[in-house]
Amino acid sequence: MNIVPVIAGILILVGASFALLAAIGLLRLPDLYSRMHAASKAGTVGSGLMMIALAVVADDFATVTRAIAAVVFFVLTTPIAAHLLARAAYKVGYSLWSESAIDEMAENHQDHASRDAASS
Questions:
Q1: How many angstroms separate the CA atoms of 30 and 7, rounded?
Q2: What is the pTM of this model?
Q3: What is the distance between the alpha carbons of residues 90 and 104, in angstroms, rounded to a whole number?
Q4: What is the secondary structure of the chain as a DSSP string?
Q5: Longest C-alpha distance within the chain, in Å?
């Protein structure tokens, strides 16, 4: 019995489970910021695991290289993109969920607004 297809199958199932959790998070979480967090973190892990599964079963070195490059690309770009989108959403006025415990951006946002007003 060859173990490689079994490992790839497990990676696909775990990756698909993370993708499912990301989709459920998009539907169930209360505000834009929580949804974005679920989509970026769980989606990155899910797609990364599925790309690793591809690299495990691929016979071609070029396919393995592309799959690993895709994982690196996901890990490097998704958190940065989610951070920038959340920051932009906050600046245009998307509010946090009413039950949020703390708004760490409020102080920083007001400092920048007062500094911008003073320089004008």
A1: 36
A2: 0.77
A3: 11
A4: --SHHHHHHHHHHHHHHHHHHHHHHHHHSSSHHHHHHHHHHHHHHHHHHHHHHHHHH---HHHHHHHHHHHHHHHHHHHHHHHHHHHHHHHHTPPPPTT-S--HHHHHHHHHHHHHHHH-
A5: 73
Give dist(CA 75, CA 40) in Å, integer: 10
Q: List CB contacts of 45: < 8 A, sequence separation 6 or more.
A: 15, 18
Q: Give the tens place of pLDDT for each residue, 43-74.
A: 899 999 999 999 999 989 999 999 999 999 99
